[in-house]
TrEMBL record, chain A:
Keywords: FAD, Flavoprotein, Oxidoreductase
Protein name according to UniProt: Acyl-CoA dehydrogenase
Family: Belongs to the acyl-CoA dehydrogenase family.
Lineage, highest ranks first: Bacteria, Pseudomonadati, Pseudomonadota, Betaproteobacteria, Rhodocyclales
InterPro entries with a match to the protein in the record: Acyl-CoA_Oxase/DH_mid-dom (IPR006091), Acyl-CoA_Oxase/DH_mid-dom_sf (IPR046373), AcylCo_DH-like_C (IPR036250), AcylCo_DH/oxidase_C (IPR009075), AcylCoA_DH/ox_N (IPR013786), AcylCoA_DH/ox_N_sf (IPR037069), AcylCoA_DH/oxidase_NM_dom_sf (IPR009100), Mycobact_Acyl-CoA_DH (IPR052161)
Domain Acyl-CoA oxidase/dehydrogenase middle: 129-223
Pfam families reported for this sequence: Acyl-CoA_dh_1, Acyl-CoA_dh_M, Acyl-CoA_dh_N
Superkingdom of the organism of origin: Bacteria
Cofactor(s) the record lists: FAD
TrEMBL record, chain B:
Source organism per UniProt: Aromatoleum toluolicum
Domain Acyl-CoA oxidase/dehydrogenase middle: 137-214
Cofactor(s) required for function per UniProt: FAD
The protein, known as: Acyl-CoA dehydrogenase
Residue ranges of every copy of the Acyl-CoA dehydrogenase/oxidase N-terminal domain listed in the record: 6-120
Keywords tagged on the record: FAD, Flavoprotein, Oxidoreductase
Coiled coil residues, start to end: none
Domain spans labelled Acyl-CoA dehydrogenase/oxidase C-terminal: 231-376
Family as reported in the entry's similarity comment: Belongs to the acyl-CoA dehydrogenase family.
Matches recorded under InterPro entries: Acyl-CoA_Oxase/DH_mid-dom, Acyl-CoA_Oxase/DH_mid-dom_sf, AcylCo_DH-like_C, AcylCo_DH/oxidase_C, AcylCoA_DH/ox_N, AcylCoA_DH/ox_N_sf, AcylCoA_DH/oxidase_NM_dom_sf
Amino acid sequence: MTTIDDFRRETRAWLEANCPPSMRTPMPDGELVWGGRTVEFKNEDQRLWFERMRDKGWFCPDWPAEYGGGGLSPEQNAVLESEMRRLHCRPPQINLGIWMLGPVVLEFGTEEQKRELITPMARGEIRWCQGFSEPNAGSDLASLKTSAVDAGDHFIVNGTKIWTSYGDKSDWMYMLVRTDPDVPKQQGISLLVVDMKSPGIEARPIDLISGKSSFCQVFFDNVNVPKRQLVGPLNGGWTLAKALLQHERRAMSKFGEFALPNHVDLLSVAARYLPPADAGTNAEVALRARALAMAMDEHAYTLTAQRMGEEIRARQDVSGLMAIMKLVHSEQEKDKLEVLLDVMGHRALGWEGEAFDSSELALTRAWLGSFAQTIAGGSSEVQLNVIAKRVLGLPEGKQGK
Amino acid sequence: MSLVYSEEQRLLADTAAEFLLARSPVAAQRRLRDEGTAEGFDDALWKEMVDMGWSAIPFPEALGGLAFGCMGLGAVFESIGRNLSASPLLSSIVLGGTLIELAGSEAQQAEWMPLLIAGDKRVALALDEKPRHDPAATELRAERQGNGWLLQGDKSFVADGVGADAVIVVARSAGVPGERDGLSLFLVPADAPGLQVSPMQMIDSRNHAQVRLDGVRVDAAALIGQEGSAWGALDAALDRGRACLAAELLGMTQNLFDTTVEYLKTRVQFDVPIGSFQALQHRAARCYAHLHLARSAVMAGLAAMDDPKLDAAGRARLASLAKWKVGDAAHRISREAVQMHGGMGVTDELDVGLFLKRIRVAQAELGDADFHCDRYGEFVEAQ
């Protein structure tokens, strides 16, 4: 009889034998491995770690083994996650498909779709991107207009998607399209999966205030999409989209553990740029206090993430807690970078070149990049609406939907 | 270190919630205030708390305690906060009892622990001298005199000082104000000649006192712990107190927040509930986020007190984080609570004002947000 303790022992032994020591170190910027048709490895250890985890089915440990998953129970999966955390294992790959689309296909997809989409996903063979937002459908996502018109055995897709991360580097996209323009907006939306190599698709990278970005705008000009690539019911896409976004929130909170490899330590920056605590002007003392308060709020957030994990394991309802995480984290990042800007003075205002060291330039870009964090993935205002209405149960306003 | 209550702690929390709601609701505190009792709490209620074992929670079994930890106490203090219940649990048990537990001699423990735990006697901690909490700044002099000590100086903001059977006085027996070395603790009976305890009537209508020690003579047995080296035990006892007070603040803030959200749903203006206005919704949602951050910090502060793996600095850092963050959340939420209740919010008829006033006092007690921000920084820089 294998108990969960046996599983823990075996898992620990396997990870120790198979996770190369260099894959147990904090991940430097730009060393994420993205699964896809072509996978780029920076070194041999990355390849080894990728292939071993893939062959074990542990890219998606708790998916059914028949589709290439690891077939673990939720308890076993939690053990695997905790053992990986304990050894500081890097994620072997990053793939939006696994985090977001996969669970939805498993729940709503046909048998054929599970075989065609899930199996390669579980092997890290397809790089997925997301086509949700449009230039005129941001926070009001359901007003999206990209159309998919019935043409017998396929749809013809026209329109444009924006804020698609790595749209230019991805193999397939899951996207929301309008399949019925004549019903209330949520009821005419469907979820399609599309090969990015299809004729008529163009992905253009977007430059941001922080410089080059991974975001793209993707244009669709009479793109043919076979009907078997419709996931879930026709015009039933909104329900799937909501499920997907929930997986996004969960993934973001997981991703948060390693998303900021060059996490800036506020207090060490303050120590470097400000005079010692017992010297300094009133203004410098006040700046130090601001930096400290910010660091404390950040600490409270870290503890909150920890508490959420514990409450999930204790099977408590964490929906309220989950609803604040993105809001708090993104707003704190913005506030923190502004404090750092004040602490560092003009040293944090360099754009490029030799006059600034790399950590200073990185900070400037991080600050400019932080503005996107309170907009992307549900703006702070949307998050506040969600908390007010769904968590606190405050009534709908007059203009409502 | 766990940030959620265990099954047993949850049970205790439920019992405390049920008991206090029945025996000591906010209305009871309002009555106490209106009657103007000197002690500021209901002695019969305190006896019942003692009977339920609350006064034994934090102490080891060898001293007659339940060894149930600060996390268990936190569950009780949260309910105390929700109901605004007044009692000497913090002053006499968490602060006074802890000092005797950590620094007292066997004889002092044998004499005092049973009395405190049984609620037969109570002590109060006389620490603050300046308007703002700063233990190291203690000036009150202790000078050797013959076999004993002579104490001279003034203390204020002494919680539950009126009617206490004895006062634990933090005094300077060496060094200069600002130094942590040179502090000593003395257990001074309330009837000691030269000891004068007078009430400070404060906005929360609780028992606070000014204590004057005018040439008070105590014998050598009154010294708690080693002469001049009270700091370690004092700081540890204060941290327990801070963690528990943080839990009380959390309970008060949670109640105030819940009440306010309920009001937003029921108060109608312009023919709609005012909670349908986005300007108010977003502010309420932000309060909710801060409340969650505060809860995490408080749970960590409580858990830190019980964690044998942490050193004093690690505990101090988390106690300060807890008091700081819950103070911050309490400040934001009490302001919003009054504002969102509109005109009714500034009337004495509503309980909002009672919470606002107690919150403000609890924020200042045992160190306000600025004090704890500084203190947190000190321990971060030391790492």
